[in-house]
Design goal:
Layout (H helix, E strand, L loop, with lengths): L1 H6 L7 E2 L2 E2 L2 E6 L2 E6 H4 L17 E2 L4 E4 L3 H13 L10 H10 L9 H28 L3 H6 L1 H14 L5 H10 L1
Parallel strand pairs: 3-6
Antiparallel strand pairs: 1-2, 3-4, 5-6
Length: 180
């Protein structure tokens, strides 16, 4: 009888290509995702590829990894590990998706070719906004420390606002109406 019980074993873990399939449950913002550790290891040197039971995100009482992030965006991140393609949803701001990629430690070159234009449009828009802000700063020549000590800088700024923003004061509105 003792020999029989030593021969009885529990169901063996399923294997894929000779490797044991270890399930992984990831909770992102309250939404749980199921995958395997092998899938998460497909893209090395990322936050997900380094997950283990000693990770600070691991919650042993729930046997899951918890991240307080956007679950909608995580679907696209997880699809990268499953398919090897990273697509940016049309309704997502490039800045938000870029921050998610930074958080998950995914290199920017992983963005799929069909979405690279959307991603670079965000980068170009950011560069344009920065250059416009720099140009405005140059035109206004306004430095808060300098303005405290210089009447000329304060006067120049007031004139600029008066002429550029008609709703800044009643006299500016009158001038605007008269000018048009």
């Amino acid at each position: 009888m003792e020999e029989e019980s030593s021969l009885i074993t529990g169901p063996s873990a399923p294997t894929l290509d000779g490797q044991e399939i270890i399930p992984a449950t990831i909770n992102v913002g309250g939404t749980t995702f199921q995958t395997t550790m092998a899938t998460l290891r497909r893209i090395p040197n990322t936050r997900l590829s380094h997950l283990s039971e000693s990770s600070p995100e691991y919650r042993p009482d729930f046997d899951e990894y918890f991240f307080d992030h956007n679950p909608t965006l995580f679907q696209d991140i997880l699809d990268l590990y499953r398919t090897g393609e990273l697509h940016i949803p049309n309704n997502i701001c490039g800045a938000v998706f870029s921050r998610e990629m930074d958080f998950w430690e995914i290199p920017k070159y992983m963005v799929s070719e069909c979405c690279i234009h959307s991603y670079h449009r965000y980068i170009n828009d950011l560069d344009t906004i920065t250059s416009i802000q720099d140009a405005i700063d140059d035109v206004l020549d306004y430095d808060t420390d300098e303005a405290k000590n210089s009447c000329w800088v304060r006067l120049k700024r007031r004139i600029w606002i008066f002429l550029d923003q008609p709703k800044s004061s009643k006299p500016a509105q009158v001038l605007y109406e008269f000018w048009i």
